[in-house]
């Protein structure tokens, strides 16, 4: 008796599982292209924000290398996009992460020209305090654009710090940790780009296999 | 007809999932920092609630009592995943700003609560209407709370509406007043608790007033009637 009801209930559950999974799978197939397109669009927009499209002529989001280096943050496999104009190296767009923010990791995207100056920086993801640390977002404040056209002279370049630490970048009222983390991380990314610029451009393209 | 009216009153006011049942507080408190986020999550919850209520009601006679909960959970999870995929595809910006709270709709007790308490015992059209009204009730509270927090916290209304409704909606953004620095208490989670507390208090005050008005008329009628009986 109990066996037969177990079998019956099991069969019904199984039927529902197949039905819902089938439905989800169908919707997934139908929306997969659209979602990939949206992600690609977002990537293009992000890249466009840090590096103007007029500066390069290749398909930037399809030309990259995967790098693991402590200068780019504590995680392995950061993506670096390579901008070329008429096959000449122009700039690198680097994804990097800093764990030194006030709350969680701050993900950044920085573009560095061949001469070592910064083309643009954007925060792509963060969990900083709303109203204080979130001024690193370009939506909230134009602070992040103060990196534009700056360059790092050397490892010991003390201008790359917030004003409180004797550097050239403003801190925010009530939030010093967040800009300090961002400045430090961008400095490291720029240093990495300067040291490895030509080597990165000769490396094999890793992008087609990587989903953004 | 009166059944529909009861459902409509219960969902929007008398048994409002957010103000009376106090269900689904996690998303309620977490995402109501702006109207746009609140509306987005409210709509997603509404869709899931209507969809799951209809489905649960359709299958209610074929599902043995012993396994109804896993079946309901599966149905709800299926709907949430579908809504999540659709939002990811068509409202990408909003999908990113709501983040983890879309999949967390699965854990919103208001949804399984309605499936178990109502849809599993009632015909399809009533269940659908119940889902719609409960969803609307939940969404309204989300939006009101979002409006309060957005207004007090950053002095705007409909900030980022274009993420939900398309580029044209950017003009909906109203800057009521501007601060040098935002009023953090309203934006952070404590502001959500305080706001919800105020809303529940307001509802209770209104209920008390309605009640006191309803009690009064019968007493007023009593007088004349007593006189009539004494005359005859």
Automatic annotation (TrEMBL), chain B:
Q: Which gene encodes it?
A: rnfE
UniProt lineage: Bacteria, Pseudomonadati, Pseudomonadota, Gammaproteobacteria, Alteromonadales
Indicate the quaternary assembly. The complex is composed of six subunits: RnfA, RnfB, RnfC, RnfD, RnfE and RnfG.
Kindly list the biological process annotations in GO that this record carries: electron transport chain
Q: Which UniProt keywords apply?
A: Cell inner membrane, Cell membrane, Electron transport, Membrane, Translocase, Transmembrane, Transmembrane helix, Transport
Q: What does this protein do?
A: Part of a membrane-bound complex that couples electron transfer with translocation of ions across the membrane.
Where is this gene product found?
Cell inner membrane; Endomembrane system
Q: Which NCBIfam families match?
A: PRK12405.1 (NF009070), rnfE (TIGR01948)
User: Which top-rank group of organisms is this from?
Assistant: Bacteria
Q: Which source organism?
A: Pseudoalteromonas haloplanktis
Protein name (database record) = Ion-translocating oxidoreductase complex subunit E
Query: What EC number(s) are associated with this protein in UniProt?
Result: 7.-.-.-
InterPro entries for this protein: NqrDE/RnfAE, RnfE
């Amino acid at each position: 008796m109990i066996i037969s009801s177990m079998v019956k209930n099991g069969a019904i559950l199984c039927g529902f599982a197949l039905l819902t999974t089938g439905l989800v799978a169908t919707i997934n197939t139908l929306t997969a292209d659209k979602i990939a397109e949206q992600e690609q669009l977002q990537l293009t927009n992000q890249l466009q924000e840090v590096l103007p499209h007029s500066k390069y002529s290749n398909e930037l989001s399809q030309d990259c290398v995967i790098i693991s280096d402590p200068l780019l943050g504590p995680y392995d496999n950061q993506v670096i996009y390579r901008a070329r104009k008429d096959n000449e190296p122009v700039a690198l767009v680097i994804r990097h992460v800093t764990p030194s923010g006030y709350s969680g990791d701050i993900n950044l995207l920085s573009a560095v020209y061949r001469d070592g100056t910064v083309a643009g920086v954007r925060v792509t993801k963060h969990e900083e305090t709303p109203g204080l640390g979130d001024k690193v977002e370009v939506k909230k404040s134009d602070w992040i654009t103060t990196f534009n056209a700056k360059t790092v002279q050397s490892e010991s370049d003390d201008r790359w710090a917030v004003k409180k630490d004797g550097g050239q970048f403003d801190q925010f009222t009530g939030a010093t940790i967040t800009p300090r983390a961002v400045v430090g991380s961008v400095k490291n990314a720029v240093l990495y780009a300067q040291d490895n610029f030509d080597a990165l451009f000769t490396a094999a393209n890793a992008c087609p296999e990587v989903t953004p | 007809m009166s059944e529909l009216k009861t459902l409509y009153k219960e969902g929007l006011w008398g048994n409002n999932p957010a103000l009376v049942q106090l269900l689904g507080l996690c998303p309620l408190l977490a995402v109501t920092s702006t109207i746009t986020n609140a509306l987005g999550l409210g709509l997603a919850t509404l869709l899931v609630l209507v969809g799951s209520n209809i489905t649960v009601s359709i299958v209610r006679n074929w599902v043995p009592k012993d396994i109804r909960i896993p079946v309901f959970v599966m149905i709800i999870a299926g709907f949430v995943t579908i809504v999540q995929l659709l939002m990811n595809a068509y409202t990408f910006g909003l999908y990113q700003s709501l983040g983890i709270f879309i999949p967390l709709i699965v854990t919103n007790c208001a949804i399984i609560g309605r499936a178990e308490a109502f849809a599993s015992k009632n015909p399809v059209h009533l269940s659908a209407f119940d889902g719609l009204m409960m969803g609307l009730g939940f969404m309204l509270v989300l939006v009101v709370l979002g409006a309060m927090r957005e207004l007090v916290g950053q002095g705007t209304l409909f900030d980022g509406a274009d993420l939900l409704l398309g580029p044209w909606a950017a003009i909906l953004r109203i800057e009521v007043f501007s601060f040098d620095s935002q009023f953090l208490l309203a934006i952070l989670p404590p502001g959500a608790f305080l706001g919800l507390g105020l809303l529940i208090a307001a509802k209770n005050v209104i209920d008390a007033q309605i009640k006191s008005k309803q009690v009064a008329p019968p007493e007023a009628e009593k007088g004349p009637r007593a006189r009539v009986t004494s005359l005859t």
